[in-house]
Request: fold
Amino acid sequence: MKDTCRLYTDLAWLWPMWGDATEYADFCRHVAGLIRQHAGRPVTTLLDIGCGGGKNILNLKREFTVTGLDLSPTMLAQAKDLNPECIFVQGDMRTFRLGRTYDAILMDDAISYMNCLKDFEAAIRTAWAHLEAGGVMIVTPDVTPETFQQNKTTVTSSIRDAMEVVFIENVYDPDPADEQYETTVLYLIRDNGRLQIETDHWTLGIFPLDTWRTVLRETGFEVYEDRYSQDGDEYTVFSCVKPG
Ligand SMILES: C[S@@+](CC[C@H](N)C(=O)[O-])C[C@H]1O[C@@H](n2cnc3c(N)ncnc32)[C@H](O)[C@@H]1O
Reply:
């Protein structure tokens, strides 16, 4: 099936309804704590790579001066609306060059869009090029083969004024031996009770934890690992320090 990525293009207006930005507060506190724990330099600036609609940034900007980078102009416009005081840049995480460095970097769920090893390595190298010596990059795999739940389906609903939306998200790995899995989303959109059904599909990357460790170390990072739990799911969080 072809990738559609509609959530970041024509259906991007649904993104603010899929989880409130305040739901990201606990994760962002965890991220900020890890940055402070591992940094070998004062941290004031942070680059959020794959910032999407800026929900993480809404929480992180209390502690850091944040710049957001994303591929989608539509998502960047949402992020700017939510965080007018922050700087946003369009770019591809595999190749962008901003000509400057940051004290910290966050690569959250957007890293899943690196769906082959070559792209994954390119994104990690690009982040490295934008980090100060002594700075910390926090990067979190959404899924790894160690935790992947075949055919897991999650249902979330949201109401805003006369608009009701149900998000039905299914993950499936057709070939556990390769580096990809599929996310398929069904949107049930009711505007004043009138039903519209839309679908979406992505091919995302899935790499064993040992591949993560190898790529991060071979790029040059000192790598620290911890776990973060949310809604019954446990995620590995890598704190990656660029040696000074
Ligand atoms: C789930 S959203 C991120 C949401 C974000 N964590 C937040 O706080 O709102 C994933 C984002 O990854 C972005 N993305 C996908 N591929 C990318 C690439 N190659 N370079 C930069 N951003 C990319 C998409 O445009 C999308 O906005």
User: Anything to note?
Assistant: The longest strand covers residues 180-191. The pocket of S-adenosylmethionine is lined by residues 8, 50-56, 70-72, 75, 92-94, 108-110, 113 (CB under 6 Å). The helical segments are 25-38, 55-60, 73-82, 117-129, 209-219.
